[in-house]
Write a structure and sequence with these properties.
Protein name (chains A, B): N-acetylglucosamine kinase
Oligomer: homodimer
Keywords (chains A, B): Kinase, Transferase
Number of helices of chain A: 12
Helix content of chain A: 40-55%
Radius of gyration of chain A: 21 Å
InterPro entries (chains A, B): ATPase_BadF, ATPase_NBD, Euk-type_GlcNAc_Kinase
Number of domains of chain A: 2
Largest sheet of chain A: 5 strands, mixed
CATH topology of the largest domain in chain A: Nucleotidyltransferase, domain 5
CATH architecture of the largest domain in chain A: 2-Layer Sandwich
GO molecular function (chains A, B): kinase activity
Strand order of the largest sheet of chain A: 3-2-1-4-5
Shape of chain A: globular
Strand content of chain A: 15-25%
């Protein structure tokens, strides 16, 4: 067998790519969510289905799955036990299950040193220097994910209630949000009680939009988020000549707000996270010496 | 019938007091939770049971409940509909359902003008000047309750993760909390996902304790909470000669931290919330002119 699989699984879908040992992708497949924390059996099913579709897409016999090595990047791997449980039931010849951030880092940086900041609904920061990796954040909406969209949305809604109570002045943004909720603060409280992080995150682009037009509350919320991102980057202790890639749904909105120092380090990612998983698989399992055993 | 009922219902218990038209309490009763948002039928049951026990305690015939007027202070009355639904099924002759904060204000201030700040797991602020009442806060753990114990606990746990990631320096307090969770930040994330506001609030006394001993993170968290309380008090626009009562489980810990201006206004409450409900009932239903109809 001279092929490898890269797999990128998340809460909404699972993507697989079949590639040569040189890392050239020859087939792709996509299936449903692969959340190993909430549904391990369903995640396994969708991982295998995406891999099967990648074989079909490449015109290859999908029964060869059991003879193929795979690198998987999945959300939730840092919570104890799930990763080992999944590795035990995967049908591939050899499997390496990593976090979604690790394959994103490998995709963005290739084999270079540097750092990534993934800023979407949540936030996580990673750096690599040789074999040394450092991860910051990624602790989720309630206590972490600082600078991410969900925290921006939550911060906004808190500011709307604070303005409603005349504790601090409101702005066009808080008035617009209050109008969106029919002028009733209790509707905001009900929304918050029923919402997932992504629902809060849906407000983030609006906040950037108002902040760009000088809205006082919007500017305060964004300044706080950007400050949180910068503090996390500071903790990575990057050298000025290092590469920094901003990834995730808010990357393009956060990037122009960063301080000069970090803007100078920004480079576009080489590949996406799936490409990172493929590259890792080719490097790990395709090397002439036989590669590692995961 | 020359008796009135005051009732104080909350998430853990319901208390009733039977009183003369002059407001003198002659019997008391206590039953289970009266949370009208989560269990209206159960709340009605416990309200009636507490009232019945108050009649028994006073040596009175409890079938007289249907001939007795009542003032009830209950959590959750500001969320649309529950209050009207409850009033429709109560067995008293006339019923006035108010928020728990309104009866607390009447208990603390009597008939005087002034303000209260209830700071326990959550936070809410109210002032009265003649017939005019103003309420600030009370929007719950996710977006409000600033300065309350649950927000203090949540803020602490966020600081512990931030210190774990070396984003900001830790302290004896963050080390103690991390040790409490076995040194594993994922245990903190799991705790947060499974916890109710009161669980977060359980950390608040610890934060005050460390802050009093000069702990840097503890002091920062408490300073933020006290700042939030002061901002809310500022929004009530109190005059220097007005009375301010601090109520709730954290009142004694917050009071010494307030600025001189507010410390000078502090007075002990005249009565607790149940006493406030009784006074309101006596005033409203016991007046010779027959009182209001609720």
């Amino acid at each position: 067998m001279n092929l490898v699989l890269g797999i990128d699984g998340g809460g909404t879908s699972c993507r697989a790519a079949l590639a040569t040992l040189a890392g050239d992708i020859i087939g792709r497949g996509k299936s449903g969510p692969a959340n190993i924390m909430t549904d391990l059996t369903g995640a396994r099913h969708n991982i295998v289905e995406a891999a099967r579709l990648a074989f079909v897409d490449a015109g290859k016999d999908s029964t060869m799955i059991s003879a193929t090595d795979a690198v998987l990047g999945l959300a939730g791997t840092n919570v104890g036990g799930y990763r080992q449980q999944l590795e035990a039931v995967l049908p591939f010849r050899r499997s390496l299950v990593e976090s979604d951030a690790v394959i994103a880092l490998n995709g963005a940086l290739g084999e270079r040193d540097g750092a990534i900041a993934i800023i979407g609904t949540g936030s996580i920061f990673m750096s690599r220097k040789g074999a040394a990796m450092q991860t910051i954040g990624g602790w989720g909406f309630m206590l972490g994910d600082l600078g991410g969209g969900a925290r921006i949305g939550r911060d906004l809604l808190q500011e709307v209630l604070v303005a409603h109570d005349d504790i601090r002045p409101g702005s066009e943004l808080t008035h617009a949000v209050m109008a969106h909720f029919g002028g009733d603060p209790r509707e905001i409280v009900k929304f918050a009680a029923a919402s997932k992080p992504a629902d809060f995150g849906n407000f983030a682009p609006l906040v950037f939009d108002f902040a760009a037009r000088g809205d006082s509350v919007g500017s305060r919320v964004i300044a706080r988020a950007v400050g949180d991102v910068e503090e996390a980057l500071d903790a990575l202790k990057l050298e000025p000549d290092q590469i920094l890639c901003l990834l995730g749904g808010l990357a393009a909105l956060i990037a122009p707000q960063l301080s000069h120092r970090y803007r100078m380090m920004l480079r576009p990612p080489l590949q996406d996270a799936l490409g990172g998983a493929v590259s890792m698989a080719a490097r790990l399992f395709g090397a002439p010496k036989g590669g590692a055993d995961g």
